Description:
CATH topology of the largest domain: Nuclear Transport Factor 2, Chain: A
Oligomer: single chain
Number of helices: 5
Structural class: alpha+beta
Strand content: 35-45%
Distance between the termini: 58 Å
Largest sheet: 6 strands, mixed
Radius of gyration: 23 Å
Helix content: 25-40%
Low-confidence stretches: 5-23, 176-196
CATH architecture of the largest domain: Roll
Strand order of the largest sheet: 2-1-6-5-4-3
CATH class of the largest domain: Alpha Beta
Amino acid sequence: MTRRIAIALIAALTAGTTVCAAAFSGETTAVAAELRRSTQALLDAIAPGDTAVWDRLLDENAIQVDENDVVRSKEEILAELKPLGAGLVGHLAIDDFRVVEHGASAVVTHEDDEYLDYHGQVIRSRFRMTDTWISSPLGWRQVSSQVLAVLQDPPARKLGAKVLAPGGDWRVCTTSSAFFPNATTPARSRSKAGRPSRRP
């Protein structure tokens, strides 16, 4: 009896592993294809501030946590969604997309590549988003989303002694400030205020 139970347990665990592997194998189902289209539509609607797309695809009780740890309801998401300002051009494109279906619900995780032209300076960023969707009489609707910034160090560079020596002319730029120390001017910074958040 004990042996039969052990065999049944092993079979069940193996089946479960197979199901999980299939979910992440890259196989595209009709649901996965629809959710990818809807997800990309949401991303495309961020730069122009298209609230109609977000209003249509978000559940009335949707909740979102952005990369800055700000929690928003659907009403707050729509209120925050504005077109990019003058001098800014950008878009988000899905790079990696995975879906696990659970009957009338689905969990989606996707990594997205962002291109932003910030007054002539090109900024590239990546974000990991994990969303939950439910099937409703109106179609699939997003009920929750969490956004994480994918942190990647820039490529390493070797700097010569002339650059590193006291008085050398060098600069360090980040997404929030730029520093310009040199031989005659003390270190100073200039804030890049106005850079929009990636999500509403």
